[in-house]
Amino acid sequence: MMSIKLAIRDDDTCFFTQPEDLDQVYGQYWGRVPISLAVVPFSVAEHRGRSLSPGYPANQPAPLGQNKRLVTFLRDKIRRGHVEIMLHGHTHEYKQIGTEWIGEFGWKPQAQLEAETIQGKQYLEQLLETHIRVFVPPSNRIGCAGTHAIRQAGLNLSGIMGRGGDRPWSADYLRAYALRWAWRMRHGSPYPYPLSYGGHTELAAHALTPRSTRQQLLDDLNQCAAQNAPFVLATHYWEFKDDPTMQTTLATIIEAASNHAMTFATVSQCIDRSA
Fold first, then answer.
1. What letter would DSSP give residue 65?
2. Helical H runs in the chain?
3. What is the model's pLDDT at position 47?
4. What's this model's pTM, rounded to 2 decimal places?
5. Can you tell me the distance from the alpha carbon of 58 to that of 136, in angstroms, rounded to the nearest whole number?
6. CA–CA gap between residue 44 and residue 41 (Å, rounded)
7. What is the pLDDT of residues 219-266, one digit of tens each?
8. Structural domain boundaries enclosing 206
9. Burial of 66 by CB count in 10 Å (0-12 exposed, 13-18 middle, 19+ buried)?
10. Predicted pLDDT of residue 1
């Protein structure tokens, strides 16, 4: 039997990120727990009305490569096997529709998403000297147009289908949809295994945010361990500044995974059943 895997997924690394921001959260884990960073190649400063850099033009794309300290830091972590790079949108730009902020993979047209996904993937691969296998949708929202785009780019998805209509229709989509929701109805939890259909594979993630409860995450972890299923913990490094208790929760989850003899892995390794 293959070992059960746990991965840490951290979203929003971009031009506005400093190496110290990541070190503050993950410094004690480098070399022990690989961190899968969802990286925005050309991030804008404004995210849902919050500026990542006050004074920087709100919707002007900032290429990651212009932050040379961060690029050097990431290349070193990749070479050491401490970090996996995933693609996290293109600019991470939101559009406000009514009172709701919609992530870019929920409002951009398909042709634009297809071109930008390939461009962003190639840009990060060349800049960081790595290979990207996984896509993380900004705000965890992706529809049919975005699904076509990641398939065209040869990427898998850290996330899972919704209630219906958010993926291209096909016979294997219907089979996967029935499997996903039959599991939810029977167990009351997201489908825990990699789910392949239509040319890509996706895997649910469990959110660690200031609103998360430590016990619920432990319950989810224990359930995945009992089912011999991978566990992906998804978080944001910048939220740890606002809620220091998240650091304790992260340490608790990692300790619990060790107690289950889980293997610390990357998100792409969790998605790949043969890895």
1. G
2. 19-26, 68-79, 110-128, 144-152, 171-187, 214-226, 239-242, 245-259, 267-271
3. 86
4. 0.96
5. 22
6. 10
7. 999 999 999 999 999 999 999 998 999 999 999 999 999 999 999 999
8. 5-271
9. exposed
10. 47
